[in-house]
Each structure stands twice: as C-alpha cells, then as structure tokens.
Amino acid sequence: xxxxxxxxxxxxxxxxxxxxxxxxxxxxxxxxxxxxxxxxxxxxxxxxxxxxxxxxxxxxxxxxxxxxxxxxxxxxxxxxxxxxxxxxxxxxxxxxxxxxxxxxxxxxxxxxxxxxxxxxxxxxxxxxxxxxxxxxxxxxxxxxxxxxxxxxxxxxxxxxxxxxxxxxxxxxxxxxxxxxxxxxxxxxxxxxxxxxxxxxxxxxxxxxxxxxxxxxxxxxxxxxxxxxxxxxxxxxxxxxxxxxxxxxxxxxxxxxxxxxxxxxxxxxxxxxxxxxxxxxxx
Length: 282
Fold this sequence. Notes:
eight-stranded mixed beta sheet
C-alpha cells in the first residue's frame, strides 16, 4: 500500500534494439514468463508485459487482443490528469490490462493504429513513465517490448520510463551497427531525460550450425566497439522449441523443453545478478 516503506515498486526494463529480427520479443516474452513462474528458490514475480510493437507479435504470443486503442498500450501515452480525474484515469489504465492466456503474466496488448498515432506525437516523452508509476505498486517487474527500426516517441518514451535496458543481438548482417545506433539513443537519454538509465547488458542469440562461432565473433566485436557495456555470457540458441512455444501461445517454461529452459534460466539468473536482485525475494 502507498506509504509502506517496505513496498517494492516495479522495476521497468526495456527490451530493445533498432534491428528487426534480433530476438527482442522472443527474449522479452520468455524472460518475463521465467520470472513469473519463479527462478530457483525465488518466488514467482508479479509481471506486467507492455507490447509496444504495432505488429502485435507478443500480444498474439500471450493470447491477448486489444479491442480498440483505448484498451491497448496506446492508453499509456495519454497525459496523466493533474486533478481529481486521476482515479478515473487509473481505472482506464487497468481496463487495458489483460491476463495472458496461458501464462501467469499480465499484458497490455498492442493496437497498431493506436501505437502509430502515439509514435507520431513529438515531445511528451514522460507520459509513459507517469502512467507506469501509477501501476508500480501492483508489480515487481514491467517489461517494455519495443519495435525495431523505429526512433520516434515509442522508443524514447520507453527509455525515459525504464530503470534499465536489455539489448538482444543476433549476429549477422549489420547487427553490430544497428546495436551501436541504438546505444547512441540510449546515451542521449542518459545525458538528458533519464540519467539513471542502466544498460543491463547485451544478450546474444545464436542460430544454425555456426551459432557458437558467430556468437563468439560477435562478442569479440562488441568488446572492441562497445567495451563499456556488459555482454552476457548466457547465449540463447535458436531452438525449435522456442518456435513451437510461440505457436502454442506459451513460454519455453510451459513447453518443458530442457535446453530452452536451461538457456533462459541462465539468462534470467545472469540478468537478475546484473540488476542487483540475485537471491532477493520479490
């Protein structure tokens, strides 16, 4: 309850990169669900997933459908009233939250038109942060899943609202360059609107028979050009179980695939250590 000094407020984390196909949604969904199920001897966390991708990939994965823009993540970009209308505004926010179909996670689903409209509005980059603050006591973790190739209000507002950012990277093509472009935006936000924004780290996804080799090459390249950011030792392999999980609208935890669970357990534990919550009760 408000005023309780022992109450932990939600930690908001952006999962982002400017390159599509880097594993943002896959990692965001599975990391969120791992925490919600509980990791090791830690109790299940109260998790809110916010889908900010107009393609609605995460919303479909978690079995959520926004009937209209007002009951979608677009509502989080409305200005918070500064008068007696705040209780009604909070009810509108909560009306946009759904329970995932098969996972112990709450989700604010995406609505393509609503997000397109929100992204086109310049300025007002604190609205998302202000709205999430109204929900902060209800959750332990809030995850923001960003679209790729977008540098407008969605991305900037997410970084302003977040305590930290986790950056997925899949080796190949211009992945390193796109990651560097994303970090330029991160550093711009840290110099201005959110100086406390933490870079939690970079997680490398691997694919194909050369996966381990490509991951090592990517890690070495990152060490040269982005040496001041942490690169997680955990690797997320592109396994068929992950693709099946999406089709069945569940996480890899629910699928029960040992290798996929091992990968995401390792990532979750390393990430929790990075943000200083390893071994802490939620």
